[in-house]
Amino acid sequence: MSQRRSIKILLVDDHPLVLEGIRSIIETISHMEVVGTAGTARQALALAARACPDVVMMDINLPGLSGLDAIEKFKEQQPKVRLLMLSMHDSREYISNSVMYGASGYVLKDVPTSEIIAAIEAVAAGGTYFSSGVSDVLMRIGESTRPTGPLTSREQSVLRLVAEGKSSKDVARALDISARTVETHRKNIKKKLGIATTAGLTRYAMERGLVGTSGPGRVP
Fold it and tell me: Can you list the positions of beta strands (E) in the chain?
């Protein structure tokens, strides 16, 4: 009988006690290996490039770049990595956004040890896993992530600039608004269109003539 391939896991949480607790749980499982730990999403992205984990188990509330925003970064930089979100929150917004952005699972921090192991195994195998405490929220995710209405003129302007490759700071300067407002517009656009990544937004804008393939487009 062939030996089971080891699952390589990267743990991301800004609370050292949580990291050590989960590490100690995983280290009792013979076919799982913790290849690194990080306290921020940016540290995790750098570690993942070197350690090539199969699964990144990441807290949502992280300093600097949040876990939700980091999902998109991981999808762009490490597309083969499976993302399992870890949180103490069972809010509909957190769960639906995690799914929309591309996470394969969502586990609450107070679940039993056996559920953490089951979640890692399911996600590593290409499936999904969500804590029993969030199953009722998942029933309504389809409703919350389908397109909710047309973009406003301001949202179209933000979308066009994002599709042209502008950063949030560049967009803020161009439209004379704050970078925080730009981020809010980006999240609202993604939610309205049901698109989770910047690449997806760019394709959407090009398909609708908001930006051309050889130069900036015009927003109607």
Answer: 7-12, 32-38, 55-59, 82-87, 105-108, 129-130
Token couple for 42: 């940016």
CATH number, domain containing residue 173:
1.10.10.10
Q: How many domains does the chain have?
A: 2
Tens-of-pLDDT digits for all 220 residues of the chain?
446 679 999 999 999 999 999 999 999 999 999 999 999 999 999 999 999 999 999 999 899 888 888 988 898 889 899 999 998 887 777 787 787 778 999 998 888 999 999 999 999 999 999 887 665 566 555 444 445 567 888 888 899 998 888 888 999 999 988 888 888 888 888 888 877 778 778 888 887 777 754 444 333 3
Q: Has residue 220 been placed in a domain?
A: no
Expressed as residue numbers, the domain containing 77 is 7-143
